[in-house]
TrEMBL record:
Enzyme Commission code(s) on record: 2.5.1.21
One BP annotation, GO: farnesyl diphosphate metabolic process
Subcellular location: Endoplasmic reticulum membrane
Chain's gene name: Fdft1
Gene Ontology CC terms, in alphabetical order: endoplasmic reticulum membrane
Any coiled-coil regions, as ranges: none
UniProt entry keywords in alphabetical sequence: Cholesterol metabolism, Endoplasmic reticulum, Lipid biosynthesis, Lipid metabolism, Magnesium, Membrane, Metal-binding, NAD, NADP, Steroid metabolism, Sterol metabolism, Transferase, Transmembrane, Transmembrane helix
GO molecular function ontology, one term from the record: squalene synthase [NAD(P)H] activity
Name of the featured protein: Squalene synthase
C-alpha cells in the first residue's frame, strides 16, 4: 500500500515510466550511449571482458573516433578510481601507484591483480584497455594521459589529508570530477562533435564536474560517515559542530540542517556556469549525455535542502521523477525550465532563521535570471486530464506491475542515484 500511495501522490511518474518503457527511452538512451562509458560496447566492464577474450576491436580510420576515445577515457578513469577506492592497498603502495598510473597506459603488460574492489576487473584486464588507448589518435591519447596524470596526483594528495577549507573542497572536487568534465570537453572538441570553445573553456567544464561531485558528497554524508570517509569541508562544518560525526546526533539536528543548507548554497553557485556550458553544445548526443546528470543533481539538491533525512538515511529522487528528467532534458530551454522549477522548490523551503538564507536567495536570483520560463517546456508538468485520469486508474489497478516496471528501469536511472 505504501507503493500505491507513492504512485497516487505522483501520477505523472506512472505516465512517464510507461512512456519510457514503451519507447520513450529511444529518444534518450541510444543518443546518450553513443558518448557515455556505459554505452561502450555494451558497458564499460563488459567491454573489457569482451576485448580480453576475443581481441576484437572496432577498427576505425585515423586511430578511432571521438566516441571510441570517450569509451577508453571512461575505462582508464574507472581503473584509476578503483585504485583510489581500494582500502586494502597500503598507502605506501597506493600513493605512488596513483601518481604514476598514467605511465601504465604505455606499458603493454601492466596490470594489478590484488585489488579487492568490485570493479577490479578493469585493473586485471588493463592490458586490453591500454592496448585500445595506444591505438587511438595522438590527439585523444594526449588528452586522456594528461587528465589521468593530473587526477592521479590529486587523488594521492587527498589520501594523506582531509578537506579543510572551501578552497580545498573545490580543489578535491576538481581532481576527482572537474578534470573529468575538462577531459570530456576536450575530447568533444578534438572529435569535432563540438566547437573548439567547449574544450578551451576549462572553467565552465570544471563547474560541470564540481556540481555533480558536490551533490554526491552532500547527499552521501551518512554513508561516508559509516565507512570512515569525510569530504565535507571543515571550514563549514566546524561552525556547527566539534566533529563532523556530531551532525548525525539527534540533539544536533537543527545545526546539522543549517550546515547542509550552507553547502547546498555553495553548490548552487555552479548552476549559471552549467547553463552557459550547455547552451554552447550543438550535438544532440553530447547534449543529452551532459545535461541529464546535471538535472538529476539539481533535483537531488532540492530533495536534500533543509531535509533532516540526510543525517538519518538515504535521500534519493523517485525513479519516475528520474525518468521524467531523462526524457525532458533534451534541449537548453527544457533544462532551464527544470533548473527554474527546482530552485523555486528550494526557495520555498528556505527557513527565515537559516544563517545562509540571504546567500541562498541571492544565488537563486542569479539562476532565475538565466532560466526564466517562457519556452515550450515551462509548463512541462501540466499534463492533460485524460493522461492523469488514466494514470490514476493504472495506479489503482496495476500497482504491483508498476513495482516490477520500476525495477526494470533501474539500470537506466542508476546515474541519478550516484
Amino acid at each position: 500500500m505504501e507503493l500505491l500511495r507513492k504512485w497516487l501522490g505522483h501520477p505523472e511518474d506512472i505516465y512517464n515510466l510507461l512512456r519510457f518503457k514503451m519507447g520513450g527511452y529511444r529518444a534518450v538512451m541510444p543518443r546518450m550511449d553513443t558518448v557515455s562509458g556505459e554505452g561502450c560496447a555494451g558497458g564499460g566492464m563488459r567491454f573489457a571482458v569482451a576485448s580480453a577474450r576475443s581481441g576484437a576491436r572496432e577498427e576505425e580510420e585515423g586511430g578511432g573516433t571521438g566516441i571510441h576515445a570517450v569509451c577508453i577515457f571512461y575505462l582508464v578513469l574507472r581503473a584509476l578510481d578503483t585504485v583510489e577506492d581500494d582500502m586494502s592497498i597500503p598507502l605506501d603502495v597506493k600513493v605512488p601507484m596513483l601518481q604514476e598510473f598514467h605511465s601504465h597506459l604505455y606499458q603493454p603488460d601492466w596490470k594489478y591483480t590484488e585489488s579487492k574492489e568490485k570493479d577490479r576487473q578493469v585493473l586485471e584486464d588493463f592490458p586490453t584497455i591500454s592496448m585500445e588507448f595506444r591505438n587511438l589518435s595522438k590527439v585523444y591519447r594526449d588528452v586522456i594521459s594528461d587528465i589521468c596524470h593530473k587526477m592521479g596526483v590529486g587523488m594521492a594528495e587527498f589520501l594523506e589529508k582531509k578537506v579543510d577549507s572551501q578552497h580545498e573542497w573545490d580543489k578535491y572536487c576538481h581532481y576527482v570530477a572537474g578534470l573529468v568534465g575538462i577531459g570530456l570537453s576536450r575530447l568533444f572538441s578534438a572529435s569535432e562533435l563540438e566547437d573548439s570553445i567547449v574544450g578551451q573553456d576549462t572553467d565552465l567544464a570544471n563547474s560541470m564536474g564540481l556540481f555533480l561531485q558536490k551533490t554526491n558528497i552532500i547527499r552521501d554524508y551518512l554513508e561516508d560517515q559509516l565507512e570512515g570517509r569525510e569530504f565535507w569541508p571543515r571550514e563549514v562544518w566546524s561552525r556547527y559542530a566539534k566533529k563532523l560525526s556530531d551532525l548525525a546526533k539527534p540533539e544536533n539536528i537543527d545545526v546539522a540542517v543549517q550546515c547542509l543548507n550552507e553547502l547546498i548554497t555553495n553548490a548552487l553557485h555552479h548552476v549559471p556556469d552549467i547553463l552557459t556550458y550547455l547552451s554552447r553544445l550543438k550535438n544532440q548526443s553530447v547534449f543529452n549525455f551532459c545535461a541529464i546528470p546535471q538535472v538529476m543533481a539539481i533535483a537531488t539538491l532540492a530533495a536534500c535542502y533543509n531535509n533532516q533525512q540526510v543525517f538519518r538515511g538515504v535521500v534519493k529522487i523517485r525513479k519516475g521523477q528520474a525518468v521524467t528528467l531523462m526524457m525532458d532534458a533534451t534541449n537548453i530551454q527544457a533544462v532551464k525550465a527544470i533548473m527554474y522549477q527546482y530552485v523555486e522548490e528550494i526557495y520555498q523551503k528556505i527557513p527565515s532563521t537559516d544563517p545562509s538564507s540571504n546567500k541562498t536567495q541571492q544565488v537563486i536570483a542569479s539562476i532565475r535570471a538565466m532560466s526564466l520560463p517562457g519556452g515550450p517546456m515551462a509548463s512541462r508538468h501540466h499534463y492533460s486530464p485524460i493522461y492523469l485520469s488514466c494514470a490514476m486508474l493504472l495506479a489503482a489497478l496495476s500497482w504491483q506491475y508498476l513495482s516490477t516496471l520500476s525495477k526494470a528501469t533501474e539500470e537506466y536511472v542508476q546515474a541519478g542515484d550516484n
